[in-house]
Specification:
Structural class: mainly alpha
Pfam families: Unstab_antitox
Number of strands: 0
Organism: Candidatus Accumulibacter appositus
Distance between the termini: 37 Å
Number of domains: 2
Strand content: under 5%
Shape: flat
Protein name: Putative addiction module component
Length: 77
């Protein structure tokens, strides 16, 4: 039986969160290492942009505990 990407996604989303995290980690690890350099470059560019946004005042930071509480509240709904 051949599963479609949609079927695999549906099955994966039905897994407990720890299993989904493990699956996501394994999928990322399976990506082409040649693309990894490109992805690293994109993340470095994004990190610099975010740093500059904070330093310039365009973005306000919030404490990590407050951010985590917001995420918990979003998932508690």
């Amino acid at each position: 039986m051949i599963l479609t990407v949609e079927q695999i996604t549906e099955e994966a989303l039905a897994l407990p969160s720890e299993a989904r995290a493990l699956l996501a980690d394994r999928l990322v690890e399976s990506l082409d290492p040649a693309e990894d350099g490109y992805v690293q470059q994109l993340w470095a560019t994004e990190a610099c942009r975010r740093r500059d946004d904070v330093r310039s005042g365009r973005v306000k930071t919030i404490p990590g505990d407050a951010a985590l509480e917001r995420v918990r509240q979003m998932f508690a709904r």
